[in-house]
Amino acid sequence: MGLSLYEGAILVTRSQVLDSPSYAGPPAFLTARLVLTLEERTIFNIRIRTMKNKSLKILLAGYFGFDNAGDEAIFESVVENFRRLHPQAELSALVQNADTADRLGVNPIARSHLPSIWKAMAGHDLFVQGGGGLFQDTTGPKSVIYYGGLLLIAKMTGCPSVFFCQGYGPIRSPLLKTITKQALKLASLITVRDEESQAEIQALGLPRDKIHLAADPALLLSPLETSAMKGLLQEENLIQELGRSELPNGQLSKAGPLVVVTVRPWPDFSLEELGRALKEFREKRSARYLILPFQPERDLEPSRQLVEMLEGEAKLVERSLKPRELTGILACSDMVIGMRLHSLILATVGNPPLYGLSYDPKVERFCRRAGALSCRIEEISSDRLLREWDHVLEGRKNQRDSQQKAVEVMRKEVEAAFKASLAVGQGEARQAVEKHFQTSPPS
Questions:
Q1: 370-376: long-range contacts at Cβ-Cβ below 8 A with a sequence spacing of 24 or more?
Q2: Pick from 167, 214, 159: nearest CA to 191
Q3: Are both 236 and 210 inside the same structural domain?
């Protein structure tokens, strides 16, 4: 069946606008779009992809380019897995700093330059927003307005969008909740990283069957290769520090368990109470400590203070490490005590027992899904921490088994979210998209 008059006219207009070096923003393209109904836009976008027979062009957005290892881990995993599932994909990303994008071979686009964002949306087949916790007002209203605005631009330019493996909230402002609700209605697909986010988005007024449970994309990030890992350990003088103390018979060696600790600045967080508990745990268990800053600009100060409290008997890595490097180091540990969410998520590659220090609901939520213990920072006491760490270390085999089963389920859910997102970008019918979330009945 041939193109309609409308479709042919818009095809010419779209090609002229996007190929023009002088294109600077929405007016001309938006004017051309006004002659199409929503259904015609969908047909048009599908036919554009079919006629040009090109690879899928995917635009990514998140909290990318801010030197936060957790968000960079999400970025790397999203790039890695879209390329694995669709090797011909052409990837671009809205970033603050282009270093990671350049390293990954992704086309960087300035995240705060509206004309560039608009042109990028108009020129891509799929907009993927996430993961992370982007819709929240803990840091103010700008995040909700910015990311909600991106979903609106995607809709206006006819680019299908995916709310991808995100956490929701907290959002306290009624106005920002309304903005979020309207923004999420514009998404072609919604996937979330935990059950609580699913329930809270449903409470906004969106139907539950349209909100699909997935997990954090960083769960699918590959660790650093062994040869590269060895070089990193030598550079950082960590050869003697790293290595699990657990023996083949399941017993711990006299060297004591290697415990990786991550902290961050946060109001009402008692670093002193944590330091006291770590000292007592070291005396009781001969624990060895490695302190890893996940966002050095913010985490180094409390990390250094913690080393001082431990009287220098802890190794602090001060340089900024890439996500796959962090994954490799975490995999060498006997236990991870993490305040940074992604120190817990990336550690799942090696599956040491996890313990979360929950400054934000997202930490507690992940620990609950993973079958790990956690403690809210306002409830921290050295007695409680020591008691629960003892429990974790004593029951490490059972906890690892429990974590492994839970994490495997989450990884399958993330895989489904990637495949469903590609189906959206390829213009497949809703039923074809939804099938990726259908689970087989137990045998």
A1: 370/344, 370/403, 370/406, 370/407, 370/410, 371/399, 371/402, 371/403, 371/405, 371/406, 372/344, 372/399, 372/403
A2: 214
A3: no
Give the β-pairing of 211-213 and 161-168.
unpaired
CATH number where 196 lies = 3.40.50.11720
Give per-residue burial for 320-331: e unless 16+ CB within 10 Å, then b.
bbbbbbbbbbbb
Q: Are 252 and 334 in contact (CB under 8 A)?
A: yes
First to last CA, the chain: 45
Give the model confidence (pLDDT) of 351-386 as tens digits.
999 999 999 999 999 999 999 999 999 999 999 999
Measured CA to CA, the distance from residue 354 to residue 433 in angstroms comes to 34
DSSP code for 20: -
Residue 396: give the domain boundaries: 226-405
pLDDT in tens, 73-131: 999 999 999 999 999 999 999 999 999 999 999 999 999 999 999 999 999 999 999 98
Q: Which two tokens stand for residue 190?
A: 């919604």
